Amino acid sequence: xxxxxxxxxxxxxxxxxxxxxxxxxxxxxxxxxxxxxxxxxxxxxxxxxxxxxxxxxxxxxxxxxxxxxxxxxxxxxxxxxxxxxxxxxxxxxxxxxxxxxxxxxxxxxxxxxxxxxxxxxxxxxxxxxxxxxxxxxxxxxxxxxxxxxxxxxxxxxxxxxxxxxxxxxxxxxxxxxxxxxxxxxxxxxxxxxxxxxxxxxxxxxxxxxxxxxxxxxxxxxxxxxxxxxxxxxxxxxxxxxxxxxxxxxxxxxxxxxxxxxxxxxxxxxxxxxxxxxxxxxxxxx
Length: 285
What we know:
The longest helix is centred in the middle third of the chain and has 29 residues, at 166-194. By secondary structure, the protein is α/β, with parallel strands linked by helices. A 6-stranded parallel β-sheet has the order 3-2-1-4-5-6, with helices on both faces. A 3-stranded mixed β-sheet has the order 7-8-9. The chain folds into 2 domains: 4-163, NAD(P)-binding Rossmann-like Domain (Rossmann fold); 169-284, Orthogonal Bundle (N-(1-d-carboxylethyl)-l-norvaline Dehydrogenase, domain 2), CATH 1.10.1040.10. The chain has helices at residues 15-22, 37-46, 70-83, 100-109, 124-130, 141-151, 166-194, 199-206, 214-224, 234-250, 256-269, and strands spanning 4-9, 28-33, 50-51, 60-65, 86-94, 115-118, 121-122, 133-138, 155-162. It starts with a strand and ends in a 16-residue tail after the last helix.
């Protein structure tokens, strides 16, 4: 059995369990890196792997990143290039949600050096913990096929979306859908409260009907309990929607609702709800 040397970078709320699932594969020699070393040490107490400093120059078969934003990825890319942590057939899988501009720049940067797959994920922290994430992949079909066995460690669904950048464009579309659903849930909650409808009964009455969705099924019960500690934060959603708005402007598409929701998340990300999950959008109503 071929054993792959893999570097996983970014042990945040998503990356921590994702790397944990990957560590259980018998054909993987896993190294991890996190900018906050305490998080890295905590991960190593729970899972099998080795700590890695980016000043070293080991060469990996796969490099996987799951980072916060453009700036975080740029910092990592610079160090990887400086230390040449790759071979000709190395595959770089980026699970971050980043701007389309950075995807294109990274693809050019790594051209003829390694294969780069822009591979954002959806499914939230629960999906990462339960290994049920969905991955949207842009880039080489050959590299995607070689990577499927790796991604299957932490994802239930992984789809090749075409050329480099299409992974991010699919994720942007996903975020447009999510923010629209959460907006309508917030309005529905406001309407129900105003008209003194029993919200628990409302949930039971419509959760399996045409108005049902993952967000409604999983988040409406927590919203009415005033609980907002379920992973993906308002700060991250504001960041993602900023990329969406930038791309929609470039494409000359007026995403009126998405722009309105972006401004609401931007406001939340500068408030005490900065680290609350995205269902806290209801607080702006």
